[in-house]
Design a protein that fits this description.
The complex is a heterodimer of chains A (331) and B (295).
Chain A: E1 2-6, H1 10-18, E2 23-26, H2 44-56, E3 60-65, H3 74-87, E4 91-94, H4 97-106, E5 112-114, H5 123-133, E6 137-139, H6 146-155, E7 159-167, H7 178-183, H8 187-190, E8 199-204, E9 207-212, E10 215-220, E11 236-238, E12 241-243, E13 251-253, H9 258-264, E14 268-271, H10 278-297, H11 306-315, E15 321-322
Parallel strand pairs in A: 1-2, 1-14, 2-3, 3-4, 4-5, 5-6, 6-7, 7-14, 13-15
Antiparallel strand pairs in A: 7-13, 8-9, 9-10, 11-12
Helix pairs in contact in A: 1-2, 1-10, 10-11
Chain B: E1 2-5, H1 14-24, E2 31-34, H2 47-59, E3 63-67, H3 75-85, E4 92-94, H4 97-103, E5 109-111, H5 120-129, E6 131-135, H6 142-150, E7 157-170, H7 175-179, E8 198-201, E9 207-212, E10 215-223, H8 228-233, E11 238-241, H9 248-259, H10 265-272, E12 280-281
Helix pairs in contact in B: 3-4, 9-10
The chains are: A alpha/beta (331), B alpha/beta (295).
């Protein structure tokens, strides 16, 4: 299985490539990519340097243009597609059906991947894009169990990429408007979830409050570690109980089932986190590289290495991990 | 402008559903979306029942549309969608890419609110596949709608979600089961205890979301009743009301009177407000946070 790592910046790209990524994914500095955060992503010059560095090391570069093109601003998205093709990237990661049709028609030789933001959870959904537009690979939303992943692989001729480590989207990607409901900006439209500019930390008599768009997401005691106020990881009151009503702060980690994914025919494992630091990307890449090599060398005898899991937990949100929807119990 | 009733998003007992659609037959609505769009475990009515209801509503002069499940995971769920898309009688509201793949090139279909139709290029694609109507994604604004309408290809109608709790997100996880601390596989159909969902509030008591099984809805009721004149001007063909256990008929009646010019949009919006559980919101219309109530 190929290891695909996040490159939110040139130093992160180098960290991923130098530590064993087979491919990196990056985006441009605008609303065309789903990690449109302040200070992240690539301009033309940075992209050229990143591509040179990756290609010299034999790694591929994918460009994520995976938000939904806004009506009236169509050319921003087609420009991003044209620019990526001109730069010589190895694949485009797209979600918008109209934009996929554009890329397939105008750049028929370009390799296209279906972004997780396209919410394709079935063979039929992937085949829709493979048959019409020649899409070669699909990234699966984090909502399927392992047996469901196997069934998708059996039903499509496209390659499948799954998330292996990083923040866990609890909702099916590409169909979550929680962030725009509270802040006006969400992944589909603006490429951001729970945008930093809407975040406020307030020290009050009750404790440390995290607020998003004015809405209280969580309240921490002075000694309690506080997490970034993502809407699906807050503590809320339902039916008289206050708890993590949607999901605890935790990270997805598939180290336990790498041989199963390999055997199922998964083509690539992806590390989430273009918003993360180069040091984070370096460590996550090193650990995933080691685990993937171990699983590839001896799938039968593979035993998840607790030392590797512990290293990932140190990077993880909430310092804990889960298999998420891959394991039915989580659902 | 036509009025539609969206699919029932909650899990109501069979008798309540049948009773509701008996009333719908006499309501001044033009289009009725039928079917289970949230959770495949909800089986108070099966495909045959929905088809029978479609027949009754067509006899009452409505256009029935069969809606598909929004998040498909299991093979059995695809089987249900396949059956719906091959029904041969009624148009289908395709709520994900799989359903569009199955319905493409056959009878005219509706691209539902979760299909992610964000630009005219996607509209062109939908028309080429045989779509007769698209439902605007919930988070789009008046300005985006205007840009879409300006470049809308021939032969496709535009529908806008005008009243109801907004279905904001879907998950593999059932949040109602989680609230009851039971596994999804043994949920005991707890969502039937909440005919308009389970309120989720912040720790300071502000209503934020509504838990509805694997779906998270807005806490407030979205209302575009006050924008009927603007929607008409923008060439919108259909306005959607999302069914609630109470006052659906009242809201439909207010919309009808507004479209017919009996009430002004502002008057109707004021009269509708008491029927909005959780209060009203309309922020998306203004390109703002969806939960905002602006004027």
């Amino acid at each position: 299985m190929e290891l695909v790592c996040p490159a939110g910046s040139l130093p992160a790209l180098k960290a991923a490539v130098d530590n064993g990524a087979d491919a990196v994914y990056m985006g441009f500095r605008n609303a065309t990519n789903a990690r449109n955060f302040e200070g992240l992503n690539f301009d033309e010059k940075g992209a050229r340097r990143g591509l040179a560095h990756a290609h010299a090391a034999g790694a591929r570069v994918f460009t994520a243009i995976n938000t939904y093109a806004a009506a009236g601003r169509w050319h921003e998205w087609t420009d991003a597609v044209d620019r990526a093709v001109d730069l010589g990237v190895d694949a485009l990661i797209l979600a918008d059906p109209g934009l996929i049709a554009y890329a397939a028609a105008d750049h028929p030789d370009m390799r296209l991947h279906l972004s997780v933001q396209a919410s394709a959870t079935t063979p039929e959904a992937i085949e829709f894009h493979r048959r019409r537009f020649g899409v070669r690979r699909a990234v699966l939303p984090r909502v399927l169990s392992l047996s469901q992943v196997r069934r998708v692989i059996a039903g499509t001729d496209a390659e499948l990429e799954v998330f292996g480590f990083g923040s866990l989207c609890v909702m099916v990607e590409g169909r979550c408007a929680l962030s725009s409901y509270v802040t006006g900006e969400a992944p589909n439209t603006a490429g951001v979830c729970s945008p930093a500019k809407a975040v406020r930390w307030v020290e009050s008599a009750r404790g440390r409050e995290s607020r998003l768009g004015g809405v209280l997401i969580d309240l921490y005691r002075p000694d309690e570690p506080a997490g970034y106020p993502t809407l699906c990881k807050g503590r809320f009151a339902v039916d008289g109980q206050t708890y993590y009503a949607l999901e605890e702060p935790t990270s997805l980690n598939v180290l336990d089932i790498l041989p199963e994914l390999q055997q199922a025919g998964v083509a690539a494992v992806k590390v989430e986190g273009r918003q993360r630091s180069p040091a984070y990307v370096a460590e996550a890449t090193r650990v995933m590289r080691a685990a993937l090599d171990q699983a590839a060398a001896d799938p039968e005898g593979y035993v998840p290495d607790p030392a590797l899991a512990a290293r990932l937990d140190r990077l993880a949100e909430g310092r804990t991990h889960t298999l998420g929807a891959l394991q039915r119990r989580w659902q | 402008m036509k009025i539609s009733l969206g699919p029932i998003l909650y899990f109501w007992p069979r008798q309540q559903v049948l009773e509701f659609y008996r009333e719908v037959a006499d309501m001044p609505v033009d289009v009725v979306y039928l079917g289970e769009t949230v959770c495949s475990k909800r089986r108070e009515l099966g495909t045959d029942d929905w088809l029978e209801l479609a027949g009754q509503l067509r006899a009452a002069g409505k256009q029935p549309v069969l809606s598909t499940l929004s998040l498909l995971e299991a093979g059995s769920e695809l089987g249900v969608v396949r059956r719906l898309t091959a029904n041969g009688e009624y148009p289908v509201e395709a709520n994900d890419l799989s359903a569009v793949e199955m319905v493409a090139g056959t009878a005219g279909f509706v691209a539902g609110p979760h299909f992610n139709t964000y630009n005219p290029a996607t509209l062109e694609l939908l028309v080429s596949l045989g779509a007769i109507r698209w439902v605007m994604p919930l988070e789009l604004s008046r300005d985006s709608l205007g840009a879409m309408q300006a470049e809308r290809p021939e032969g496709i109608e535009t529908e806008v979600f005008a009243w109801g709790r907004l279905p904001l997100a879907f998950s593999a996880r059932c949040f109602t089961a989680r609230a009851a601390d039971v596994p999804k596989d043994q949920c005991g159909f707890r969502c039937m205890d909440y005919p308009e969902g389970l309120p989720l509030a912040t720790r300071e008591g502000e209503g934020l979301f509504t838990v509805n099984g694997v779906q998270i809805q807005s806490g407030r009721t979205a209302s575009l009743v006050g924008m009927i004149a603007e929607l008409e001007e923008l060439g919108v063909d259909v306005v959607r009301v999302s069914p609630q256990p109470a006052h659906t008929e009242d809201v439909v009646s207010l919309l009808r009177q507004t479209i017919d010019g009996v009430l002004s949009p502002a008057e109707a919006a004021g009269l509708a407000e008491p029927f909005a559980t959780g209060g009203v919101c309309n922020g998306y219309w203004y390109g703002n946070a969806g939960m905002a109530a602006l004027s």
